[in-house]
Each structure stands twice: as C-alpha cells, then as structure tokens.
Amino acid sequence: MSMFKSKNMICCGILATILVVLSACSGTGAKSSASIQPQNTQTEKQTVAVAPSPTMVEKGKFTYGTAATFAPFEYMKDEKFVGFDIELGQAIAKQMGLEVQIKSMNFDGLIPALNGSRVDIINSAMYIKPERAAQVDFIPYMKLGNSIVVKKGNPKGVKGMDDLSNLTVAVTRGAVEEIYTREQNDKLKKAGKPEINILALPTANDAILATEQGRAEAFIDSSPGAAYLMEQKPGVFEIAGTLESAAQIGIAVRKGDTEMKIAVEAALKKVVADGTYKKLMEKYNLPAEMNYFK
Fold first, then answer.
1. CA 20 to 30 Å from 87, out of 4, 37, 162, 234?
2. Are 103 and 118 contacting, i.e. CB atoms less than 8 angstroms apart?
3. Across all residues in the chain, what is the average pLDDT?
4. Which 3 state secondary structure label does DSSP give 167?
5. How far apart are CA 129 and CA 146, in angstroms?
C-alpha cells in the first residue's frame, strides 16, 4: 500500500510538472506575440520618420522668388501676382500642404537669393542653360521658343537673328535673351559682320518700352510672351521671326538640395496628373507643343 501511494505521488508530481511546463509555454507564446506587434509598429514609425522632408525658409510656407514682369508666366495685374507660374506655384504648394509666399525681385537677383537661402525655389520661367545648371538644380516643366519683336511694319525688314547685325536690340538683363544675343554676336564677329548693339535693361517691360519709343529697333521675347503682347498692344508690334529652339524652362532649387527637388517633383507630377497643368496652359493660351509632359 505504501508502494502504491508512492507511485501515485510520483505520477501526480510528473503531471504537475507537465502542467507547469504547458502553462509556461502558453504564457511565453502570448508574451512573444505581444512583444512582436510593438516592434513592427515601431519599425513602421521609423520608416515614416526618415521620409524626405525639405527644410523651408519659413515653416509652413512655400517661399519662392520670381521676376513678375514676364507675361503670361508671372506679372502684376491690379496689384496682384498673376500668370501661369503663379497659379502653378499655388497648385504645387497645395499638394505639399503649404501656403505660398512670393518674393518679387529683378531677374538677375533670383539665383543669388536662392543660394543665399532667402527663398526655397525660383519659380520664374527660368530657361535651363548650362551656366545656370552649374549653379542650381532644375526641374523642367515646359518647352519654349523665342521670337524677334519689332514695331508694326517691320521698317528694317528683320526676318532672323542675322538681320539684327548693326541694330540696337533690347533684352532683359541676365535673362536668356541676353545670352542668345551675345552668342549671336560671337557668330557675327567670326563672320566679319557688325555686331548687335545690346541694350540690356532690368525688366522685359523696359525692353518693350524701349522698342516702342524707338530707343531699340527690336527686342527678343519668348514665343508665348510675344503672343501675349500682340493681344495687349494690337497694331503696335509684330513678330518678325521665330527662333527654333529646344529650350526648356524649369523650377530651380539649390544645388544638391535633393529633399526639396524630390518634394517639388512629386507635387508637380500630381498637378500634371489631376489635369491642373493642362487647364492652366489652356487658360493662358499656351500652345500644346509647349507641354513638357505630353
């Protein structure tokens, strides 16, 4: 009988041990499951935290520099900024969840303002040229051509850049038109012909006025700008010739500012995808051939 009790006690001990082990296993499984979930959650939070986020000049605002004298891209009307670039900038800022803050300045002050961190980007129909691309990074958004504009009747019979030899041509100081005109002077000089007398002025409006007043015999403007001028001053000017160009304009960001470039590019893609870009081109009478994204 004593042996029977001893066996029962041994069996009970073994059973108790098994139950303890099973209970421990069950508890370990529950604890392991609970500990895995927070680790996954933490991983997800870390992924979100390291996503690129540009540092803005002013928190919560999309601050950009523009030379508001270049219709139909950026200009003043009733003391307000208007134009294709102005509305495009607003659409990009909306996609980024930011408010717009515009800083107006002369064109030749835009790149110094950007590199001096006074603005986040340049949004001013800036032509993409190698000498500029060496200073800033570009996000292209439109293709452009250029036109030679003269007074109505074209008294000098201008048809192309070669015909500007020995004439006074007004351009916006620091803009691509001045660059093109200086390049043309190099060609004329090599050909043994008189060079163009370049009248470099602060704004595109100054160039227009100089031609209208007879201080210049022509000025060079973008094709859309020239078309807009024909509507604004009918009977005053005419387009003497169009310069074929593979030129593009772009939004400029600081050199090497990858986070800003990625953020603006992503917002711009959304503006194109939702049809806003195309609607703005139609609103400002810009030909479909200028669409960079088609």
1. 234
2. yes
3. 84
4. coil
5. 14
